[in-house]
Amino acid sequence: MLLTLVLVTLITFCCEAAFLLTMTPNIKFGNEFQKNVSLECRYWGNDAVSSIRHVSRITILKEVTSQEGALVANVNNETKWVVAPFLSPSVFVSGNASTLLDTFLRLTWPVVTFDLFEKYICKVNGFDSANNVVTERSPEFVAAESNLTVSDILALMVIERQEERSYCDRKIAEANVSSLSRVVEEVESNKREVTQLTQNISGLYHHPMLQFWPEGSYAILMPESGCPLEVAANWTKGYRRFHTESEGTNHNNVSEHSHLMKPVMQKIGTDHFFFQHFCVMIDSPGHPWPNGSYCISRRGGSCPPGFSSGSIEIDGEDTNGGSRTDGSLPDGVYKTSDTTMFYCCRSDGSPDDLVELPTLRPFYLYRYNGTCQDVVGMSVTDEEMIMDSEDFSNTDKYSNAFHPDGQVNNIIIYLCYYSKV
Question: Where does the UniProt annotation place the signal sequence (predicted)?
Answer without folding.
Answer: 1-17
